[in-house]
């Protein structure tokens, strides 16, 4: 399977990925963004973001942070899919993929909402004066009135 890496000049993470792939004897085609704008624009339209290094492995497009967290994980992923390649999904499978991706997104948003709620509760507790001080302040107000 053909492996392409979309990278930028002066991108250290891009360089780290390319170095790791070279050391692992994984061949790839490097596409510098400045020299391949038209192709890069098509890729970013499909994935919805412009992040490098973006990896195209056959028809799959992988983005760092979403699909792999570092060179070692990327290499394992490439090796796995070379050994166990995926067939192209049918139209029905594409619909199921979209439905499940939407459900997964909803679940992630719910988890974020719960986490934000927990953070808000913790902040509220930190910002409330301790009960002893609250009682003292009320007593002071009653004495001064």
Textual characterization of the structure:
The protein is an alpha+beta fold and 145 residues long. The protein has 2 domains: 3-83, Glutaredoxin (3-Layer(aba) Sandwich), CATH 3.40.30; 91-144. It is 60% helix and 11% strand. The chain is built from 5 helices and 4 strands, in the order βαβαββααα. The protein has helices at 12-23, 37-47, 71-83, 91-127, 131-144; strands at 3-7, 29-32, 54-57, 60-62. The chain has a 4-stranded mixed β-sheet, sandwiched between helices. α1 (12-23) links the parallel β1 (3-7) and β2 (29-32). α1 (12-23) packs across α3 (71-83). The N and C termini lie far apart (83 Å). The model has no long low-confidence stretch (mean pLDDT 90).
Q: Which structural class do you get from the secondary structure elements?
A: alpha+beta
Mean pLDDT over the residues: 90
Main beta-sheet strand count, sense and barrel state: 4 strands, mixed
- The CATH architecture of the largest domain would be 3-Layer(aba) Sandwich
Q: Distance between the terminal alpha carbons, to the nearest Å?
A: 83 Å
Shape descriptor: elongated
Strand order of the largest sheet: 2-1-3-4
Q: Which class of the largest domain in CATH terms?
A: Alpha Beta
Strand content: 5-15%
Number of strands: 4
Helix content: 55-70%
Radius of gyration: 25 Å
CATH topology of the largest domain, by name, is Glutaredoxin
Keyword list:
145 residues, 2 domains, Glutaredoxin, alpha+beta, 5 helices, 4 strands
Quick structural gist:
With 145 residues, this protein is α+β, with helices and mostly antiparallel strands. The chain has helices at residues 12-23, 37-47, 71-83, 91-127, 131-144, and strands spanning 3-7, 29-32, 54-57, 60-62.
């Amino acid at each position: 399977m053909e492996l392409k890496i979309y990278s930028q000049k002066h991108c250290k993470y891009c360089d780290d990925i390319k170095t790791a792939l070279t050391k692992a004897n994984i061949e790839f085609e490097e596409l510098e963004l400045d020299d391949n704008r038209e192709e890069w624009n098509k890729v970013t339209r499909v994935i919805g973001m412009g992040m490098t290094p973006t990896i195209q492995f056959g028809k799959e497009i992988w983005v760092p942070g979403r699909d792999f967290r570092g060179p070692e994980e990327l290499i394992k992923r490439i090796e796995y899919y070379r050994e166990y390649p995926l067939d192209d999904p049918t139209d029905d499978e594409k619909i199921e993929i979209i439905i499940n991706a939407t459900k997964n997104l909803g679940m992630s948003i719910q988890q974020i909402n719960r986490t934000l709620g927990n953070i808000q509760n913790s902040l509220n507790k930190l910002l409330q004066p301790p009960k002893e001080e609250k009682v003292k302040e009320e007593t002071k107000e009653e004495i001064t009135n």
